[in-house]
Amino acid sequence: MPSNITRPDQQHYVAPVEETPLVAIDTVKAEGKPSNLWTDAWNDVRKRPMFWISSALIVLVVVIALFPGLFTQVPPNNDCQLANSNGGPTDGHPLGFTKQGCDIYSRIIHGTSTSLSVGIIVTVLVFVLGIVFGAFAGFYGGWLDSVLSRLGDIFFSIPYILAAVVIMSVFSQYANVWVISLAIGIFAWPATARVLRAEILRVKNSDFVMASTALGVSQFRILVRHVLPNSIAPVIVITTISLASAIVAEATLSFLGVGLPSSTMSWGNDISAAQTDLRTAPQVLILPSIALSITVLSFIMLGEVIRDALDPKARAQR
Amino acid sequence: MAGYIVRRLLQAIPVLLGTTFLIYFMVFAMPGDPIVALFGDKTPPPQVIEQLRERYHLDQPFIVQYFIFLGNIFRGDLGTSFSGQPVSEILAATFPVTLRLALLAIFFEMVAGISVGLISGLRKGGIFDASALVVSLILISLPIFVIAFVAQYIFGIQLGWFRTTVGSGAPTQDLILPALVLATISFAQITRLTRASVIDTDTQDFVRTAASKGLPRTRIVPVHILRNSLIPVVTYLAVDFGVLMVGATVTEGIFNVPGVGRTLYQAIIRGEGPTVVSFVTVMVLIYLVVNLLVDLLYAVLDPRIRYAK
Fold first, then answer.
1. Is B280 within 8 Å of A162 when comparing Cβ atoms?
2. Nearest residue to B90 via CA among B271, B287, B261
């Protein structure tokens, strides 16, 4: 009998794993960083200039909204002189004046917080409603799914700007940032719920969910701890983009005259007020429009970058 | 196919009841006097209030009011505007103009969106693809009223190519500029859908087979790739219709197009709440019908939908 048999019951020589080429396959690089969807996405995102450009713009917009005093000393409302009506740039007033003779630059700076607040409130509302409806419909299925999905269909069937127009017509006396955000958000959530529901239907049949069930973890805990975190990626994408849509919706409602009261500083109100003088003073309309569009563009660009990073299919198509 | 149509029609009923109920609820179930609330800070003449109270049967329980409202809609009675004209008559007069505008816009966005999407998809990662992405992102970021004003200023006032407002009878050449503006909203979406779909189709086996049979690229692209890439674009039409209705309200208002959108726009601007409610209800009903038709069309195009349980 050969002396190098490793175990008594073995008839032939079996090399220890360390001596075979297989060792290369079996070796796990201990010093390698663990990889998951989020670190992969971060590694992808930080290489893209679009991510840094849009993030920088968003940071700028947030800083302007929080501390308008850092950017202008001119009061946006008082200090308006009709003598300056639709006037061009002068010393200390780099962008000229509105029809009422107010400083355009100062009004743009002070209007930022309105747009951003509406965007954020609507987004939080859509995120919460979308997750509650989408998660319960997708995870529990059955009659709950039917009821929640039909309810979503009903809200989805009314274009949300039209719904907001009706709500704001009824509540015109109470119009403020909160009311307008509710009016937009209450009809904007079904898209998020649908996306989440589809994703949860896919995830809930995974092995790790079955393993948790086998271990006796409660259904609700499985949903919150295992299914939701694994199906949230598409919701993040749609949420970033819905922030941009909410800002546009507020401006559109204010433009239609059913948005915020004219005393509230808002880009939509300023654009609306400038439309009668488009022929003679287009800059009064165009300047706040540029501020509005750059803000919206930065959120859409960020959403775009995140989509590319989180959705493998979008990444392959790049 | 018949089974699918029946199933789809039955599904539409709860949505139809739900949406009309929701609109009615938003307006009439709120605390306070809904008629006064609908006028905002304006005080309407007492006979108008009296007439509206009678029309909406505000002395009845809420659910009875709703069914009376629903019954009125299905009999084609949508109430009267403030000038005393029945809303249904106004609709009949304005709808053809809006339909022409919408069809023109759909034509523009489809031609531009599909061609740009096709070229981007076939040459993905190229300069054309990158510039198309930038242009479409900018177009998505611009609110429709900004695009409308800028177009009106540049092409109407500065260059003088188009009239800034639409003339009486809405001749088609006057509708071109508003339709182009309207088309920009969905252009980006259609481009993106077509591009993704083209990239997907380009890697399919039947495209490789066609190429290995020796077919020229000039035949593979239109016959094998493009035709099979269009299904998502067709389904998008249903969503697009809702986008177009909101867009038309703003665009028709700005360009003074005598359509449904402008009527709604003026009712909103003047704070004529009851007219706004009637028009929004009608628009939502039209939207539901269009969605139903597109779903049926989709089933005709793609047998998998028909037979799916």
1. yes
2. B261
Task: Say which DSSP state B226 is in.
Answer: I
Q: Do B40 and A150 touch (CB under 8 A)?
A: no
Give the pLDDT band of residue B116 (cuts 50, 70, 90): very high
d(CA A208, CA A228): 13
Select from A142, A141, A175 the least CA-distant residue to A258: A175
Q: Do B149 and A275 lie within an 8 Å CB cutoff?
A: yes
What pLDDT is attached to residue A1?
A: 45
- What is the model's pLDDT at position B309? 45
Name which of A257, A292, A318 is nearest B268 (Cβ-Cβ).
A257
Is residue A6 a part of any domain in this protein?
Answer: no
* CB-CB under 8 Å, B287 with A317: no
Confidence of residue B153 (pLDDT cuts 50, 70, 90): confident
What pLDDT does A122 receive?
93
On the question of pLDDT at A50 being above 80, the answer is: yes
SS3 A218: coil
- Rounded Cα–Cα distance for residues A294 and A225 (Å): 38
Q: Which residues of B touch A285 (CB under 8 A)?
A: 149
Residue A121 has pLDDT above 90, yes or no: yes
What ipTM does the predicted assembly reach? 0.81
- How many Cβ atoms sit within 10 Å of the Cβ of residue A13? 10
- Longest CA–CA separation in chain A, Å: 112
Question: Does some domain include residue A92?
Answer: yes
Q: Which residues of A touch B34 (CB under 8 A)?
A: 170
Q: Looking at the DSSP assignment, which residues form a beta bridge with residue A223? A: none
Distance, in angstroms, between B224 CA and closest chain A CA? 19
> To the nearest whole percent, how much of chain B has pLDDT over 90?
4
Whether A165 and B280 lie within 8 Å, measured CB to CB: yes
Mean pLDDT of A31-45: 75
Looking up residue A188, the CATH number of its domain turns out to be: 1.10.3720.10
Residues of B in contact with A195 (CB under 8 A): none
Question: Does A257 contact B22 at a Cβ distance shorter than 8 Å?
Answer: no
Mean pLDDT of chain A: 82
Q: Do B280 and A256 touch (CB under 8 A)?
A: no
* Best mutation target, A54, A157, A186, A293, to test chain B (most B CBs within 10 A): A157
Q: Which residues of chain B make contact with A173, given a CB cutoff of 8 A?
A: 37, 40-41
Task: Verify whether the Cβ–Cβ distance A317 to B199 is below 8 Å.
Answer: yes
Question: Does A16 fall in a domain?
Answer: no
Query: How far is the alpha carbon of A185 from chain B, nearest alpha carbon, in Å?
Result: 14
Q: Which residues of chain B lie closer than 8 angstroms to A151, CB-CB?
A: 18
> Given CA atoms A145, A147, A150, A151 in this order, what sign does their dihedral have?
negative
Full residue range of the structural domain in which residue A147 is found: 37-317
- On the CB side of A307, CA atoms within 13 Å amount to 15
- Determine the residue type at B270: R
Q: Which among A300, A318, A275 is positioned nearest to B269, based on CA atoms?
A: A275
Q: How many other β-carbons are positioned within 10 Å of the β-carbon of residue A292?
A: 27
Tell me, yes or no, whether A7 lies in a domain: no
Say if CB A95 and CB A89 are below 8 A apart. Answer: yes
Radius of gyration of chain A from its Cα atoms, rounded to whole angstroms: 28
Q: Measure the N-to-C terminal CA separation of chain B; round to a whole number of Å.
A: 12
Task: Measure B149 CA to nearest chain A CA, in Å.
Answer: 8
CA atoms within 13 A on the CB side of B212: 6
* Closest CB from B144, B153, B277 relative to A282: B153
Q: How many domains does chain A have?
A: 1
Q: Which domains does chain B have, with CATH numbers?
A: 87-301 (1.10.3720.10)
